[in-house]
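User: Thanks for the earlier help. One more: DUF4232 domain-containing protein. Can you show the sequence and predicted structure together?

Assistant: Of course, both are below.
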Amino acid sequence: MPGAHERDPADISAGRWNAPPGSGGPCGSALTRTPVCRPSSRRGRAPPSSTCSGNPDPASNPAARRTSNGKDRTPGRSTVRHPRTAATVLSALALTAGLSSCASGTTPAPSGQNPGIAVGEPAPGQADAPQSEQTEQSGQPAEHPGEGTGFGKCTAGTLSVRVEYHGDEDVARSADLFIANVGTKACNLAGFPELRFYDAGHQQLSIPTSQSGSTQELLEIKPGERFKAPLGWSSSPEFEPCLEPETVAVYPPNTSDAKETPWTGGKVCAKGVSIDPYARA
């Protein structure tokens, strides 16, 4: 029997020699576990694949099979996922689905709103407000008065105009501007006429006009009927400059064609001519 620190040749050849702690071992390292050392080449055979680097065999050391974070890397052994990791993955999937919905531009319909109707469009069965109702709400006449009432608006081609003066006052003067329907169909009229004054050479004079009173409701003028719009102006020298027109052109409301008639009302001074809305004569 060899001594406590003697090496049995049979153990050395089989690689089973145990080095006592602190003895340095056959590879020069202090081992705490059984190392597998490279035996001597005998009878021309290649040395075993095991090597001795002074450290235990990784296959025999469980600590060598673990990663830096303490997880076992042994082949064939599954890794258990932490429940918190699974919850994080589910949250990420839910967030991705929400972002995809936002990117598609889909917006859920507000509560109580028909999802089949675009915002700003009238609901089924909701008719557009009549033009006369729009006029009442805004306080302004419609852009094309007379439409939707069965008659068209009055134009210069279906009207005759003339001015009837009231006396020969030197200061405050007044007159009535008459219009008559000389056509074969009724037409509609509302608002104020527009006046332009011309001299004998048909050059337009700079005579201002102003509207007095409020706009009346839409008026229907039948063939042969006439309406009037009262006029007022001043001929006083203290309101100079004063100009004396030769003719006046009358434009029916919301039209671009005019009818001219002689102006015999004398001078019109700087304050200009005030115009009242049309009314039945």
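User: Great, one quick takeaway?

Assistant: Residues 83-103 form the longest helix (21 residues).
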